[in-house]
Amino acid sequence: MTESKRPKRFLKALLAAGLSLIVILAGCGGSNGGAGGTGGGGDAPQAGGGSSDSPGGTAEPPYEIVIAWFYFGAEQRDTDLIAEEVSKITREKINATVKFMPLSIGAYTQQMNLVLSGNEKLDLLVVMSDNRAAFINRGQLLELDDLLDRHGQAIKEAVGDFLEAARVGGKTYVVPTIRDFAASYGFNMRKDLVEKHGIDVSSIKTFEDVGNVLRLIKQAEPDVYPLVGMLPNTGIFGFGHFMDDPLGDELGVLPGYDNEFQVVNRFEQDYYAEHLNLLHQWYKEGLIQPDIATYQGSRNELFYANKAFGWFNHLKPGYEIQASLEMGTDIVTVELTEPVATTATVLTINWGIPRNSQNPEKAMQMLNLMYSDPDIMNLLAWGIEGKHYVFNDDGTIRFPDGVDPDGHGYNYQLSWMWGNQFLTHVWQGNPPDIWEQTKAFNERAIKSAALGFNFDTTTVQTEFAAVTNVLEQFRVGLETGTLDPAKTLPDFINRLKAAGIEKIIQEKQRQLDEWRAANGK
Asked: Which has the closest alpha carbon to 337: 323, 310, 316?
């Protein structure tokens, strides 16, 4: 494992937080109290305390659960050590050990496609909103309903009704992590440059205001990209848009999160063209990283190298601290929209069991512990107490005295990814009641009229694949401002229609109408 090469000023404060909305708080607590003390919501009979016997009477050897997940930045040298510590608990509770398969975010989707297409052993994997539909359509994820009934009671209790948001065609394929289930949208900036150039953050209220700030930075800091992307191979706005409910896959949307339940083609809407025109103007002015459409590194690397100023992203309580940690410098954020809850925000980050699993029952038992066991969750999120963190008097945690964050050993900042984030400790710099604040954030969010609707693409898989190919050809270029929408957008729309997007929208409208009637909307 390679040690992080982050700069010395890296990590002044840490956040236990995630990507987006509506949250069911499932108990918190001490080392073995609450849900965690039961060995995972009533699964102790199956777990057998590590003493499951074969018919011959000899102890069954522990099953090794292979877990794939992504990270930003660099892989940490103590990752295997954390797997060993988690295995001490899982060996006792479910007669299993864990083996991590950590992958850089830039390579994650491609590597998972290779693993899932072959026979490589894999038992649990993170499923992002962007690849969820593709994994399901290709039959690469197992149906989870029976496994949840038998081994996932803690998951069902913790996630509650929001499991319905994960159902496709009446079947559950993924389990959303418990975190912020809603998202506002905003702009994030380096605090040192904001202060250096006297930028009034309170005056930034629109995208035009952001453009003016970007122009200031371009003129004053010629060696810094004013605007960079959220992730490789995505548009400026990263995980999605703030103008409509994408209804899962963005192929047919609800403008304004309602539109009287009428599904439309986003790519034909005026607001989409206006968005592209703004980005292209910024690109022509040199406000956007010039190689953004082809850059395969992470924005973190650009910030570590002092080559980036800002980026757009979904926001939530405490995001400034999380972003400051990730970027290695203090970050200030500006909220440009109200928080909104959609099925997509609930399903931003999920866990699934791939068809490659050789023991789905053990995989589900492990997943159940990730939603109920505080000891496991804090190991996964923060590492080992005393080595990777210590407690403050207010109950928050921090680095141990004398520990250099650059040589920390286990510092991924991914508590939002590991099951039930609300079982994790709060990093210093956040208010001790950050999870209560997150709950309030979720409660004040605008709720999409279609919250809970999940599109089943079974009958339009051919069209879905063809449209996806068109998106891959055009979308990154358009949504990074690289391509001129006046020249490219009409061709993009025509090719989407030729590939069958209108058939997809018609089928989505049919299913939404049925869902609406069944749910009394």
From this structure: 316
Q: Report CA 130 to chain centroid distance, whole Å.
A: 9
Going by C-beta distance under 8 Å and a sequence separation of 6 or more, which residues neighbour residue 30?
Answer: 374
The span from the CA of 415 to the CA of 427, in Å, is 10
Q: How far is CA 319 from CA 70, 106, 302, 333, 486, in A?
A: 19, 22, 19, 8, 36
* pTM, rounded to two decimals: 0.70
Nearest alpha-carbon partner for 41 in 424, 383, 364 = 364
Q: For the segment 286-301, what is each residue's pLDDT rounded down to a tens digit?
A: 999 999 999 988 888 9
Query: Which of 198, 142, 179 has the alpha carbon at shortest distance from 347?
Result: 179
Give the strand pairing for 244-245 and 225-227. Answer: unpaired
Rounded Cα–Cα distance for residues 399 and 11 (Å): 10
Element containing residue 96 per DSSP (H, E): strand 96-104
Which run of H or E residues covers position 254?
A: strand 254-255
User: Distance between CA 401 and CA 404 in Å, rounded?
Assistant: 9
Give the largest CA-CA distance in the chain.
77
In tens, the pLDDT along 368-387 reads: 999 999 999 999 999 999 99
